Amino acid sequence: MSTNVIGKSITRPDAYDKVTGGKKYPVNYSLPGMLHMKILRSPYPHAKILSIDTSEAEKVAGVRGVLVPDDVPKQYFTPVYFVPHNAPSMVQDFVLMSDTVRWAGQPVAAVAAVSEDIAEQALELIDVEYEELPTVFDPEEAMKDGAPQLHEASPNNIAKAPSFAFGDMDAGFEEADHIFEGVYETQRVHTCYMEPRVCVVDSDTDGRLTVHSSMQHTFGLREKLAYALDIAESKVTVVKPTYIGGGFGGKLDIGFIEGLAALLSLKTGKPVRGEHSRGEDFISTTRNPIKVYLKTGVKKDSTYTARSIRSILDAGAHATHGSEVIMVHGLYGTFFPWKCPNQLWEGFTVYTNNMIGGGYRGYGAPQGCFAVESQNDEICETLGIDPIEFRLKNTHREGDPHPVLEGHKLASYKIEDCLRQGAERIGFDKRKPAGSSTEVKKRGIGFACHPLWVSGCVGFPDIYEHSGATVKLNRDGTADVISACVDLGSGQISMLTAVVAEELSLAPENVRVVYADTDTAPFDAPTHASRATYSAGLATKAAAVETKKRLFQAAAAVMEANAEDMVLEDGMVMVKGAPDSAIPMTDIIARAESPFIQVGEQGPAPTTIAEKGTIIGSASQAPPSNPSPVGAQFIELDVDTDTGVVEILRVVYSTDIGQVIHPNSAEGQVEGGFQQGMGYALMENLQFDQETGACLSADFLDYKIPTSMEMPANIESIFIDSNEPSGPYGGKSMSEMCLIVPAAAIANAVYNAIGVRITDLPITPEKILKALGKL
Amino acid sequence: MALTSVQSFYSPEDSKGVIELLAKYEDSALIVAGGTFLHGLVSRGLLSGIEALINIQKLGLNQIDVSGATMTVGATTILGQLQSCEQVQKEAWLGAVKDAMTYPPVQIMNSGTVGGSISSSCPFFDFPVTLLALDGNVQAEGGNGARTISLDEFFAGLFENSLEADEFVTGVTIPVPASKSTSAFIKMETNANDLAIINLAVSLSMTDDGSCAGARVFAGGGVGETPVRCSAAEGILSASKLDEDTLEKAGQAAADELDPLSDHRASAEYRKAMGKVLLKRAVTSAIGRLA
Ligand SMILES: Cc1cc2nc3c(=O)[nH]c(=O)nc-3n(C[C@H](O)[C@H](O)[C@H](O)COP(=O)(O)OP(=O)(O)OC[C@H]3O[C@@H](n4cnc5c(N)ncnc54)[C@H](O)[C@@H]3O)c2cc1C
Question: What pLDDT, on the 0 to 100 scale, is given for residue B40?
């Protein structure tokens, strides 16, 4: 397909603004007379609040409002944005403030004051009397009879226990020539978005709220905030941030700040701002740790005969995302990516007195991929099978029915190209047998792939999945795009711009993604689940098509021709096959927007009723399918076997994302995804004091992520030539895949280097030395 | 968390001004040089009750003098300036300083100061460990005049030093070795913005036949409240040929001398094991500088 803009890496419209300070980040938003909110948090992981005395805090000059749990509506809901507040797949166990504390860091009071310092001082004067309760931090302990119970409605602390099965497990394992068993564990990590969670909430005299917040979903925030405060949704206006400083799933649920700031604003009549410190961010969202018990039967010919999987997810104090993460982990992270005739998966979302979980790019799949791809490597190693052929034997093929979605096909699915081209680029055939180097620094090459993922949420019963946009043409030949799709930094502004520019034959600089809020824009589901390009891209394309239709109708009136015969090329509207008929589209727009007599260069001239009316089009629709991106990542690294330090030397990531809309952004996704994946694999770990439950990471001095200095100089992205028939211009999704595979790929490369396998993340230098028997 | 108690910010032009302010405020004043470590202290609640900040950047203490028998580095010399110093780049005996300057991120190199690095009295920093291995001294000035404090006397505990309340650091001095010497430094870190899991500096004075005449070994970063001197390892290295066997023994001795802590960065066991590896590698690297 020939395109003008798609596939060309247009200049990102937000780039200049960001590199000159990014004044439109929500963290920079302020209103005159604004108050500042600070939150008092429980030092205990499990306790009953017996009393709270705020009288001294209220006396501090400059304090304008104080909230305690009694001031908060007792509305129990799920804070996750992308489902209705009462979604059956979720657990409605969340309340803005409770008098039972279930994790260290849970909010117990909030203060609004004229400055942050005063609010902080006031917090110190609040006297809370707690009765400590017994605690449990390990999910498997929490499932045992007699363990401390966190929520009455959930015996044995099991919030959700979904499972799937097909085939005959006994027969399947019977048929196997070899059976492999392993336990794979992952840790708690943070998305480390750069901009903290922050909001400014203002209220009107009639109780209407206007909310600015750094979040991934305008409409989700509106719904959850209205529900938490027990007011009508129409009383809440959420303004879409022009862009936010990262989210990665970490801003995919209503935090405490929006609700508490709203209540304080209603109480004081002033705008109220809340902002997390990095330490508060660390205890507000995390990727849930999952422990995977994995048993697989394989035949001599490399095919699976049976697989049983038991996944235990540590939800922490409330279920929040945990009940959905476990499902996605089960469906798309472990069960359906591979072909296996007999399978059983059992998942458990378990309450503990750890911090609450959240969304994080990959949503349960990085944990699943680490388990399955580690074991796949073990199988190949033990049986001496070519690991690439093994994968290909057990993955789906292009044209196969979609393994989860009935009636859908894997229409674009180039897993074989991903594996073969990646292998060739890294020089996989030259890799040495595992642990064979006699040097202190041992070289390793490894890979992992993930053969099934999503482009959104079609097929998930209670997840919102529709998008909308309005596209309006202006007299100066520019287009405005109104969309509620939030740009997390991942390039949604560029993507929407490119789609509209392509469809309306405009230069990208003549397309503006403009102001939007929940009052004026059509609904859009969040920017999550790798869905924005596929779903919001398609809806915006549909809106642009509507706009074009309207343009052709007006042009038809001017040219006295048929609207159906019109085409738009290089800004000219013409009758198909008759280039002489061409009129600049700006003329049509100008005539449409003019009074009946239009004053042009040749003087006043009449226009007709039929031409009149703004050239505008809207669409709101769910996408037609849920095409799977696929990818394979190859890693070359060194392990220093005296220190256990891993140095990543080279990364090759080959992926089928359909037609690439914006190559530079796509590479950025690969690189950023690898950075997060490398942190997950090697160093990141939110650690907590085992007795007090207190988080040991207050900032980046204690929580380690790879910096540019640790990143390999070479990350090579291969985008396989592919076209997804249902996608916008042949595109599908990309973002999450880039973070699903790295940990497994790195683990397999470390194994290849040292010949010993580490099955719990992160693979720290200490674990490597222990595995080598040197510690 | 902000420094809410701060009322005043001073920028005196001479040391007298600094000393008067220190005397006036006693424990409630704090010197600011590059300001890079203040953030960490404040966010951990370690600086409550500070009423005045005293900026010492106007004193002109950012000079490096290498002309005499002692190298002098002024307190407000930024780390980047020290790194660019020709002698640091070229002289084997200053190799440990050169090595230490490769670790801090560029922002710290451009604003963190030598005086701040020493005065923080933080056992996890790098430059102090190298300075200890080079037998460096601290120059301080206070109400009772100027004095020289040897470094191991200077570090009194975690974030504690032996400065009087009205004293501050004006610079550090390092004796230029009379005989052929070499040094090296290595730090273990998780990322480039990390404090040392463990770090180690060695300085060796060498005879003409290539054997070691004397050694200094110091380790820091999670091995104690102040950097630790590894005297047994020094003893094994001194008067030796620095062959494989010596290195192995000295490494083991260094590990045995360390009684590290276990924390969320690393276990004591790992730190101890790394003491041995770092010693062997640092000695090898120092000798390599003479080749
Ligand atoms: C992200 C980051 C990475 C870092 N990486 C490294 C690293 O790799 N290696 C390393 O060694 N260090 C590292 N550091 C620490 C850094 O070296 C120190 O923060 C810096 O040297 C301190 O100097 P400063 O001038 O900024 O001190 P300041 O922050 O101004 O002061 C620090 C302390 O010293 C006191 N002080 C300062 N100057 C004097 C003086 N002349 N007399 C008396 N007291 C004084 C102050 O009162 C304060 O208590 C890092 C720090 C950060 C924030």
Answer: 78
Contact A750/A646 with Cβ under 8 angstroms?
yes
pLDDT attached to residue A518 = 98
Sheet holding A467-473, edge to edge: A511-513, A479-482, A467-473, A616-621
Instruction: Label residue A26 exposed, middle or buried (CB < 10 Å: 0-12, 13-18, 19+).
Output: buried
Residue stretches of chain A with pLDDT short of 50? none
**Residue owning the nearest CA to atom 28 of ligand 1:** B35
Q: Check if B31 has its Cβ closer than 6 Å to any atom of ligand 1.
A: yes
pLDDT over 90 percentage in chain B? 90
Classify domain B181-290 at the CATH superfamily level.
CO dehydrogenase flavoprotein, C-terminal domain (3.30.390.50)
The ipTM value here is 0.95
Give pLDDT, residue B290: 94
The verdict on A71 touching B (C-beta cutoff 8 Å) is no
**Closest protein CA for atom 38 of ligand 1:** B116
How confident is the prediction for chain B on average, in pLDDT? 95
- Checking if the pLDDT of B232 tops 70, the result is yes
B144 lines ligand 1 (CB under 6 A): no
Do residues A520 and A571 make contact, with C-beta atoms less than 8 angstroms apart? no
Contact at CB, A769 and B270, closer than 8 angstroms: yes
d(CA B133, CA B129): 6
Q: Are strands A597-600 and A603-606 parallel, antiparallel or unpaired?
A: antiparallel
Residue A335 is classified by DSSP as: I
CATH entry 3.40.50.720 includes domain A466-621: no
Q: Do the Cβ atoms of B59 and B42 come closer than 8 Å? A: no
Pocket test for ligand 1, best of B120, B126, B200 (most atoms within 8 A of CB): B120
Nearest chain A alpha carbon to B2: A117
Any atom of ligand 1 within 6 Å of the Cβ of B196: no
Residue A772 sits at the chain B interface (C-beta within 8 Å): no
- Residue B26 near residue B164 (C-beta atoms within 8 A): no
Considering the four listed CATH numbers 3.20.20.150, 2.60.15.10, 3.30.465.10, 3.30.70.100, the one that applies to the domain covering B62-175 is 3.30.465.10
| Start-end of CATH 3.30.465.10 domains in chain B | 62-175
Task: Return the residue whose CA atom lies nearest to atom 21 of ligand 1.
Answer: B117
- Whether this prediction's pTM lies above 0.95 is answered by yes
Pick the residue from chain A with its C-alpha nearest to B3.
A117
Give per-residue burial for B28-59: e unless 16+ CB within 10 Å, then b.
ebbbbbbebbbebbbbeeebeebebbbbbeeb
Q: From the list B4, B188, B190, which residue is nearest A704 (CB)?
A: B190
Query: Rounded distance, CA A302 to CA A380, Å?
Result: 8
Topology of domain A385-455+626-771, CATH: Aldehyde Oxidoreductase; domain 4 (3.30.365)
User: A517 by DSSP, 3-state: which?
Assistant: strand
Q: What is the pLDDT of residue A174?
A: 98
Confidence (pLDDT) at A330 = 98
Q: What is the predicted pLDDT for the residue at B3?
A: 67
B117 lines ligand 1 (CB under 6 A): yes
Is the CB of A121 less than 8 angstroms away from the CB of B4?
A: yes
Q: What is the mean pLDDT of residues B2-8?
A: 78
Cis peptide before A139 (omega within 30 of 0): no
Q: What is the pLDDT of residue A546?
A: 98
Cα separation, B250 vs B244, in Å, equals 10
Q: How many beta-carbon pairs under 8 angstroms link A with B? A: 59
User: For residue B30, what are the contacts with CB-CB under 8 A and spacing of at least 6?
Assistant: B38, B47, B50, B52, B53, B54
Residue B192 C-alpha, separation from nearest chain A C-alpha, in angstroms = 6
pLDDT at A88: 95
Do B18 and B163 contact (CB within 8 A), yes or no? no
Best residue of B41, B122, B190 to probe chain A, by most A CBs closer than 10 Å: B190
Contact B191 A121 (CB under 8 A): no
